[in-house]
């Protein structure tokens, strides 16, 4: 039973994903992620990440028999390549400092075999950030969220509580006014350290567990 | 005809995606992205981004009739929320400087209504970076790639050429030894400026087109 990823090139045809999912469901495998696009050459590409595959060669063989299929390629999963994701939201002076701390620290871990990505969207506004937090549920491989601003609460705090109730997600907030510091797992005053600690909190190469700390504000 | 995103909560059941894609294909809509996961409450979540939807309410109604479905929620697409993506690959001193330039510049554009994300994975090694470049095809919403290192060529350059042949992608490289500078659209010596220019190159709020430049090395 393994997890693999495949990319299927097809002549553009609406029904083809339907036929492919039927085959995958026959093989009792789970699809965890798909991304579909039409390339410059007008061929459709269907990328699938599959879990619990028992008979991968038979599965690929059966998909290859569909008439719209041009080629099927097996490759590493996005988790193998881009690893765990730290997501940074916020605006102004702090957001790039958090990113700099996280990227520099991730470089030190990734060079030892870890795979950690640092994904940032600079955003301001309670509604905007709350919506971006809610949408985290729809992104793959998210392990930690860092909130990099100077005032966050209200809908943002509600959205963070919602996402935490559904996912195992470490939330780090800068030290700031607003209710977000009551909900975050860790409150860090220095933005560079906030980025560094987000990486330490999710890296298998680091000996640091947020839930083992005796206090959570630094 | 619009693009929308829906999240469907289901009692975990392998065949349900198969049934959902059948309905979507009946309505002649395209699926561009899906992400599936099992939440802490053991409910399955299926997030779908759909293109060319004509009869969204009828579609949702029909999906809701499937017996495994608990709820269906309509919401903004990931493109509306996280926007275009700039991807930064590379390691060492430069990678966090490129990220800092890009995040700071994206903050200035996003505050005026743009949505640009800056996604970074610090990585070293020809094989590793080449594999990460190839996998860009499997990520949604990628508009630009910045290569932040001190020596890149060989398999990395081949992978960049491959991805460029399939996608409209602006590639910016730091000025460095190696064949990457022969393939990149723009070669920038200062890492902070490389990040800033990646944002300017894809922002609708900036009046800057890479292909209008008389030279491409700065």
Give the largest interface pair and sizes: A-B, 66 and 66 residues
Distance between the termini of chain A: 43 Å
The largest sheet of chain A is:
5 strands, parallel
Tally of strands of chain A: 9
What would the average pLDDT of chain A be, to the nearest integer? 93
Specify the oligomeric state.
Answer: homodimer
Dominant shape of chain A: elongated
- State the strand order across the main sheet of chain A: 6-5-7-8-9
Which radius of gyration of chain A do the C-alpha atoms yield? 20 Å
The topology string of helices and strands of chain A comes to EHEEHEHEHEHEHEHEH
As a percent range, the share of strand residues of chain A is: 25-35%
Question: What share of the residues of chain A lie within helices?
Answer: 25-40%
Structural class of chain A: alpha/beta
- Count of separate DSSP helical elements of chain A: 8
As residue ranges, the low-confidence spans of chain A are: none
How would you sum up this structure, described in words?
The structure is a homodimer. Chain A has eight helices and nine strands. The N and C termini of chain A lie far apart (about 45 Å). The first copy, chain A, has about 220 residues and is α/β, with parallel strands linked by helices. The mean pLDDT of chain A is about 95. The longest helix of chain A is centred in the middle third of the chain and has 18 residues. The first copy, chain A, is about 35% helix and about 30% strand. In chain A, helix 4 runs parallel beside helix 8 and helix 5 runs parallel beside helix 6. Chain A is elongated. The first copy, chain A, has a five-stranded parallel β-sheet with strand order 6-5-7-8-9, with helices on both faces. In chain A, strands 2-3-1-4 form a four-stranded antiparallel β-sheet, with helices on one face. Strand 6 of chain A pairs antiparallel with strand 6 of chain B.
